[in-house]
């Protein structure tokens, strides 16, 4: 009989666990607040991954990606700019330019801005990740789950901690925490400060390899005051400021047009996974953010009921500047700056009279070919060292205020219940501007007139106002000594308005592809763009049954509905896409002159997108074995999503366009399991597996995609870790930890090999269709390692991330009508040392 290594390992673990010498060792009890009350993790009828303070320290969890890598069926993409993250929980992914799909709650306060999630996890005590719809208790848009972060509370005793660190890629960090009583037992305070910077993993070859591409600088300050106003009233005040600067739009382009391969070479129909990255921007990407947050949470303990009132405010101001994409369409080909750059920065071989700058573009016509002198020749790439591709400027500013009033029964009540009200006012300004790079610098503002240094040629600038009102509640009661039934519900109503801020103006006149006005909704007869409004509402019930089958086994089943509000794309999006990619001519004018006639992509992009509603079923079990030295939790789930919101990226002669569309019906099924085992007094193992089987059932926007997999949902995820903890000298402990993660093959678009028309039909005639069969991200795995020595007041830690230096793609943004993908590389190996001192 053949015995595999996996079977041997499993047999060894079970045998060791059964050894009488370690029979008195158990896994520590983890208390979570998943249902707004303190409960044992193994008794909560929700799939929850919890990370205690000990795990946070030993695993080196400092940002969200660090704990997401430790769970099955949860992944993250962090590429375009700081805060622009897409988190996938059980196949449902948060969408760029739309609301999040999960609730992010810090110390009981719901974060309203999706960008606030990707922040420094400073002075954190516990993290809980809840899977499945959680809107009834955790707020709007909790379609896929909720992530709860609990920071350390100040106490009477004065304490503090300082930490410094350094690593490769110019990485430096410093943080400090002080905490104690301002008035004993009455007023307690805690202050945390963190500063980090890194040059990143990639450099700009146009700047001699000195210009950092994916750099990051983060300074965060957070304060917390606890006022025990009386024995029954507690007031929790939190405030924070964060200033972040980093790289932006660090992408390369890969073509996916089989017909181009026939006439040119294989570089025009390439596998995205085999790409050699070159960053050679003459407009180095920069992203700056400043976030201010403030909240007050008041808890009043009354007889039989606890009353909580939460008031929060946050303000985010953000902009980014980077290179553009329009060089391939000769938008600025005839300008003096473009001609001068092409004369000196071309990759035509020297033997043919060129500059031979293969270092900036790669080999000649593989796939980009930049010639000197002649207008309208060559295949230029996006994000190049020349001014021919223009620039892009974006803003994402948001201010929001929210109020939540919640009533909670006592935990020991026979009938346990929660009821509450929620209101929020959100104002979001979104700017996407595209214009000419004259070589004279950039004004960092949405609109630059024609006589400015970087005149605007395409602009979207809208203010989105949202008013949210919701009621929610949950009722739990025991059916008998071992069974419980819970009913939860939430009703959301969101009123949305959008106003256009684009001035009625023409562009620079230098963009050969411009229709004249800087927004396509303007015409000679229409100098204004009307405001729009819509209301979205949804009732979201959830039913949960749980059964304590034995002292060590708990089984649960649930059914629930999730909701994510619809919204608006920037005004003019529909008109722009129709003009370039759609056959919008009336039947009596079959050749009206729109370039979209030659493409006729038959898209269904609208300036408004529908609300997303999901229905999810789940069956799970939480089990303990071997005297609580082995825990295994598992669940199966089935989710149907109606109007799943999906981010689409369009690149073409106009520049670029970001919109949200919907997939009419999407089905996601899956299984996941995780385990935690105490093997010996010093050694523990932990890990998980996740499988996703998804299918697009209906998609009016792209009918050819029906039958394909859900975008950005890897078919499988694995994680496995081990930790060894021992005393090596009196009062000195050694902790060694390894964490391995595997992410399966991943599609990033609904189109997964089906051919559809591209804008190149406009230039070269019909038949130039895209095919994304080579645009699927390969599976990859990473390995992190940490080695710590700890004394009573100090710690020294050597750490490494992706220590095998695995090369992989972080994201593939496909633009079907462009005929290619914009790809971003993953982080390479990093390592360093940290020292901390407690007092």
UniProtKB/TrEMBL annotation:
CC per GO annotation: cell outer membrane
Domain TonB-dependent receptor plug: 41-146
Cell location: Cell outer membrane
GO aspect biological process, one term: iron ion transport
Signal peptide: 1-23
TM regions (residue ranges): none
Bilayer topology annotation: Multi-pass membrane protein
Any matching Pfam family: Plug
Domain of life: Bacteria
Cited InterPro entries: Beta-barrel_TonB, Beta-barrel_TonB_sf, Plug_dom, TonB-dep_rcpt-like
Primary subcellular site in the record, as a coarse category: membrane
Keywords: Cell outer membrane, Ion transport, Iron, Iron transport, Membrane, Receptor, Signal, TonB box, Transmembrane, Transmembrane beta strand, Transport
TonB-dependent receptor-like beta-barrel domain span: 267-803
Family assignment from sequence similarity: Belongs to the TonB-dependent receptor family.
Protein name in the entry: TonB-dependent receptor
